[in-house]
């Protein structure tokens, strides 16, 4: 497992078309952050953490972050 990957809990909304939208994340220390805005969704590789999955580009607390869904296991890249 990469030191750059942080596996997290994600609350999501699934619509009738099969789209998944992350609503909030729970960081490894237990803090919960709301996803303010979803900017982009695409298949992409995690350059720091390794692996390929669905990359969600989101705004959380005014910062752009990447959430990755790797077959149901969600992670972010550690800074």
Task: Offer a quick outline of the entry.
By secondary structure, this protein is mainly β. The protein has strands at residues 5-7, 9-14, 20-26, 32-34, 37-45, 52-60, 63-70, 73-77. The chain has no helices and eight strands.
Plain-language structure description:
The chain has one domain. Helices cover 0% and strands 63% of the residues. It contains no helices and 8 strands. Strands 1-8-7-6-5 form a 5-stranded antiparallel β-sheet, with no helix packed on it. Strands 2-3-4 form a 3-stranded antiparallel β-sheet, with no helix packed on it. The chain is globular. The model has no long low-confidence stretch (mean pLDDT 92).
Features:
79 residues; mainly beta; 5-stranded antiparallel beta sheet; 3-stranded antiparallel beta sheet; globular
Secondary-structure blueprint:
Elements: E1 5-7, E2 9-14, E3 20-26, E4 32-34, E5 37-45, E6 52-60, E7 63-70, E8 73-77
Antiparallel strand pairs: 1-8, 2-3, 3-4, 5-6, 6-7, 7-8
Measured between the Cα atoms of the first and last residue, the distance is 16 Å
Secondary-structure element string: EEEEEEEE
Major pleated sheet: 5 strands, antiparallel
- Helix residue percentage: under 10%
How many domain regions? Answer: 1
Strand line-up across the major sheet: 1-8-7-6-5
Structural class: mainly beta
Number of strands: 8
Number of helices: 0
Strand content: over 45%
Low-confidence stretches at least 5 residues in length (pLDDT < 50)?
none
| Overall average pLDDT | 92
Please tell me how large the radius of gyration is: 12 Å
Large-scale geometry: globular
């Amino acid at each position: 497992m990469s030191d750059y990957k942080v596996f997290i809990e994600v609350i999501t909304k699934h619509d009738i078309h099969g789209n998944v939208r992350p609503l909030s994340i729970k960081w490894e220390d237990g803090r919960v952050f709301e996803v303010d805005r979803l900017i982009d969704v695409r298949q992409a590789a995690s350059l720091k953490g390794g692996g390929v999955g669905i990359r969600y580009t989101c705004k959380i607390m005014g910062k752009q972050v990447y959430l990755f869904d790797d077959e149901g296991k969600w992670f972010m890249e550690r800074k």
